[in-house]
Specification:
It is a single chain. 75% of the residues lie in helices and 0% in strands. It is mainly alpha-helical. Helix 1 runs antiparallel to helix 2 and helix 8 crosses helix 11. It is flat, with a radius of gyration of 22 Å.
Length: 258
């Protein structure tokens, strides 16, 4: 919630900077990074990258640059980075504060050699449908909101090769929630395509075909995954409830090992 609220405040200051909104955005950016570091990465990296792209596109068309918005981006980025820096300092204190980071690196970087491939392919061909929206609204129309969504959508993919260098587990990159901007951009692209080709294919038929295709590619896998999760973990969350396979292994050791 803090992430979305911070993004909303930044969007509100694109054209006109308001000091009280800036103060609130800096505070919520700091809290976001401290409570959920992957969301902090979205702010710490996504906002400056988006601002650079936004200003570069504006400059290429000889449009006026909003100096105040540059300052907004800098302040919110620094506050968000401060939250991550505080957490990093805590992990450097050693055991037990560093254990989650050590486990993450071992589990998802060292022992998961195909993680990057699986993550990239896991989105399927649907991810390609975001490209028309990125080109039309981010590149051609140069709207910061769409530039930010585009950067957020691809940011985890860009970070994956550098997770070892950044000392973060690859699984944390997936928690940056880029499925949300990807979903928005894909929806916009499909909506525009339906409008453009409506004279050939009626809108209702086009929507029905897209919906059917989506269900055909996603519903079987979701059903399989949900069934396996429920069978293995009745409540579906291993951080709280021990998986049944683990419990059976413990019971076997208790019964067969003296």
């Amino acid at each position: 919630a803090f992430l979305f609220f911070t993004i909303y405040l930044v969007f509100q200051m694109i054209s006109k900077t308001k000091v009280h909104l800036l103060i609130i955005a800096c505070f919520t950016g700091l809290i976001t990074s401290m409570f959920f570091p992957p969301a902090g990465l979205v702010l710490t990296l996504g906002i400056p990258l988006s601002a650079v792209c936004y200003l570069a596109l504006k400059y290429s068309k000889r449009e006026n640059l909003n100096v105040n918005f540059i300052l907004v981006s800098v302040y919110v980025t620094l506050c968000s980075f401060l939250g991550l820096l505080i957490l990093k300092q805590e992990t450097l204190k050693g055991f037990p504060w560093s254990q989650w980071s050590v486990w993450d690196m071992s589990m998802w970087n060292t022992n998961a050699p195909t993680f990057n491939r699986d993550y990239l392919l896991g989105f399927g061909f649907w991810v390609l449908f975001c490209l028309p929206a990125i080109y039309r609204y981010a590149v051609l129309k140069r709207k910061f909101e769409y530039i930010f969504l585009s950067v957020w959508a691809i940011l985890p993919f860009l970070l994956l090769p550098f997770t070892d260098l950044l000392k973060i587990g690859r699984i944390r990159v997936t928690f940056m929630g880029n499925f949300l901007p990807l979903g928005i951009l894909i929806f916009i692209s499909i909506r525009d395509l339906v409008k453009r080709w409506e004279f050939l294919v009626p809108r209702k038929i086009a929507i029905a075909v897209v919906t059917l295709a989506f269900l055909m590619f996603n519903l079987p896998e979701n059903i399989r995954y949900g069934t396996d999760q429920f069978r293995n973990m009745s409540f579906g969350y291993s951080n709280i409830h021990i998986p049944q396979t683990t419990m059976k292994a413990v019971e076997f050791l208790g019964s067969n090992v003296a």
